[in-house]
Design brief:
heterodimer; A: alpha/beta; 4-stranded antiparallel β-sheet; 9 helices; globular; B: alpha/beta; 12-stranded mixed β-sheet; 10-stranded mixed β-sheet; 19% helix
Chain lengths: 260, 433
């Protein structure tokens, strides 16, 4: 599904990812955890194609294609979805109109029939229930006047409607109360299946109580420094990121010491 | 065609056969005032952003041919949905579709020539638009040959709208003059549309009187040819408890000046003044508004939005005056501008002059670019870059367009906006927004 090899990337000439390697198989749920400044959001943004985030070396292969060569909209049409850390408010653009335009551009690209207004509304209503969003929200401008939790639920709602092959959640859990966390996790669990892969980027382990990852990776200073199963998340929770950082630091010292 | 403005710096009053003595006298005074004032120059504070040199360099002619009567073909006609429509070509009546509306005993829709001997006309004509100090208003007052006269009798709510269509062409100068009198407790919607082809000069003045408790919706839709000069003044006089909505949409014209002046002269009057200008190429549009709070307990809400691309130049100069007696005034003025290119320029000059301390007023203006974050958000959901840009530009304009109550007007405004947007928007296919 997704193969990242020795990825170096950054913003404004500053290197943040320093040789990141990660393989996500079809149907797998991966969690990437790490302290602030470790490069979590940079990874999410590079994968989604946000302008200004530049990959300087390494490769990202998605379903056999060079993902980095595609503009953001092409990535979305190929089935990559980024649930944003800070969903932007877009006054004047109606939620439903926007999402229908998005879905139909994706369907068109994938050779599927575009949905008409009725078909789309039916789909949207069904998915709204999943994230417990009130229908009234749908006729408002995109994210305008939404609370933090509503914005995050709107991201998950969009994800449910667009049905991506690879969903990347960039700190979707930050600032959410328990109820909202549960809704977000249920949305992701509903999507995660044999064909869909999920990359959950998070600072805390909280979300992983509701959403069980197949793999957990620890990101520090632009690299994945430790990988394991779901038990790694719990270990991190108990010991804190300093534990991993100390381990990494000592292994670096050994490397330096071993060098002639 | 005979020349009227051959000596470009002085004018003679152009009388009409059968003109009442008061109109004759006012014309002569106005011509005198123009000759004393001369064309406005950028040395005047109110004209500092707009030079009329390209306009005054041309020897304009007045079209004195019989106006074409075959104007059915004008795509700007709204005859199918309007209750009455008057069409003027170069300032002279070309088509009159008002007979059905005039069946109503309380509605009078006619030409200024037809109306000028009436008592109501005499009371209101040139009473509000200031030809003493405003040179172009003086020129219009001295030279007008025709225009629309609309009178709604008291306590008459008129459903639907009246459309006034002004077409310019053939290197002519014209000075359409309109008078709209809404009697107390009446209700009326009037739309003025300005279109044309080639180079011409339209200098128009509309006076609107909203009587006590009257509700007036006025739209000015300026979609002149890109080579045209347009100078227009809408002068609104509001009496007690009247409610006026004025919307100015400017998307056409090469060199344009839109003036809207409102006097809130009766207690409890309320005004909503909205404007939208969408410019590209080398268009220059100068919006100038004055809201004069004369009486207590009035409120005014002003919102002007500009979208500028390529080398366009836009100006918003809005003045709100709160007179000493106008206590309990509530006033809000906002100007927002969206620049789509590095070379587009907008000047925003909101101002408040408050002469008593019992008011609630605020104003503000912003100038910005398309929100890159919003653009990425749309693209990250699969919407192509050009569609995403257009969606955001339309979203910026929509606040004003979507408030237009009349379907055909809102749709036409939307369509016209799309047609003038540099990156064309795909037709909206009747989708829910």
């Amino acid at each position: 599904m997704l193969d990242i090899k020795d990825l170096h990337a950054g913003i404004d000439g500053k290197e943040i990812l320093k040789g990141l390697t990660l393989h996500v198989g079809v149907g797998e749920v991966h969690a990437i955890m790490g302290p602030n400044g470790s490069g979590k959001s940079t990874l999410a943004n590079v994968l989604a194609g946000r302008p200004k985030y530049v990959a300087t070396s390494g490769t990202v292969t998605y379903e056999g294609k060079d993902l980095l060569a595609l503009p953001a909209e092409e990535r979305a049409r190929e089935g990559v979805f980024l649930a944003m850390q800070y969903p932007v408010e877009i006054p004047g653009v109606n939620n439903i109109y926007f999402l229908k335009a998005a879905l139909n551009s994706i369907r068109k690209h994938q050779g599927l029939e575009e949905l008409d207004a009725m078909e789309f509304l039916q789909l949207a209503r069904e998915k709204m229930k999943l994230v417990e969003l009130d229908e009234a929200f749908m006729n408002r401008s995109v994210n305008e006047g939404f609370s933090g939790g509503e914005k995050k639920r709107n991201e998950i709602f969009q994800m449910a409607v667009l049905d991506p092959k690879l969903a990347i959640l960039d700190e979707t859990d930050s600032g959410l109360d328990i109820d909202a966390l549960r809704i977000v996790a249920e949305g992701v669990n509903a999507l995660a299946s044999e064909k869909h892969s999920v990359l959950v980027i998070t600072h805390y382990q909280r979300l992983l109580r509701y959403l069980v990852p197949d793999f957990v990776h620890v990101l520090a200073d632009g690299k994945i420094v430790k990988s394991g199963g779901k038990e790694l998340a719990e270990e991190l929770e108990q010991k804190g990121y300093e534990w991993v950082e100390r381990e990494v630091a000592s292994s670096n010292t050994e490397e330096v010491a071993a060098a002639p | 065609m005979s020349s009227v403005l051959e000596d470009r710096s002085t004018i003679e009053p152009q009388h009409i056969d059968g003109e009442p003595e008061r109109v004759r006298r006012i014309r002569a005074q106005a011509a005198g005032r123009f000759n004393a004032l001369g064309w406005p120059t950028t040395r005047l504070e109110e004209w500092k952003y707009t030079s009329l040199t390209p306009l005054t360099n041309i020897a304009w002619k007045t079209d004195q041919r019989d106006p074409h009567l075959n104007v059915e073909g004008s795509p700007a006609s709204l005859a199918k949905s309007a209750i009455a429509e008057l069409t003027f070509v170069n300032g002279r009546l070309a088509r009159n579709l008002a007979s059905a509306a005039n069946q109503h005993p309380s509605i009078r829709v006619t030409t200024m020539r037809e109306a000028m001997s009436s008592e109501v006309f005499a009371r209101h004509f040139a009473t509000y638009a200031d030809y003493e100090r405003h040179a172009l208003t003086a020129m219009n007052t001295a030279l007008w040959q025709d225009g629309a006269y609309i009178e709604i009798f008291p306590v008459t709510p008129v459903e639907g709208f009246i459309h006034l269509l002004f077409i310019g062409e053939g290197s002519a100068a014209s000075h359409p003059r309109n008078l709209i009198v809404a009697g107390h407790g009446s209700q009326i919607t009037v739309i003025e549309t300005y279109v044309g082809s080639g180079t011409y000069f339209t200098n128009t003045v509309t006076e609107i009187v909203a009587g006590q408790g009257a509700v007036v919706d006025h739209y000015k839709f300026e979609n002149e040819s890109l080579e045209a000069f347009h100078i227009g003044t809408v002068q609104i006089h509001q009496e007690r408890s009247s409610s006026v909505t004025s919307r100015t949409i400017a998307i056409g014209g090469g060199l344009v000046r839109n003036e809207i002046n409102v006097a809130l002269t009766g207690e409890g009057a309320s005004l909503s003044l909205e404007g939208l200008f969408v410019l590209s190429g080398k268009q220059h549009v100068d919006n100038h508004t004055v809201i004069d709070h004369v009486a207590p307990h009035c409120d005014s809400l002003e919102l002007f939005k500009g979208i500028l691309d390529e080398n366009a130049r836009g100006i918003f100069d809005g003045r709100i005056i709160v007179e000493p007696d106008a206590v309990k005034t509530s006033s809000r003025q906002t100007n927002r501008n969206l620049l789509l290119s590095e070379t587009a320029v907008v000047d925003s000059k909101p101002s408040l002059e408050i002469h008593n301390d019992d008011v609630k007023c605020n104003h503000g203006s912003t100038i910005g670019q398309l929100d890159e974050e919003a653009l990425f958000y749309l693209r990250a959901r699969g919407i192509g870059e050009e569609d995403a840009r257009n969606l955001l530009v339309y979203a910026f304009a929509s606040e004003i367009v979507e408030r237009m109550k009349i379907d055909v007007v809102r749709e036409n405004a939307g369509r016209a906006l799309f047609s003038r947007m540099p990156a064309r928007l795909p037709e909206r296919r009747g989708e829910p927004r």
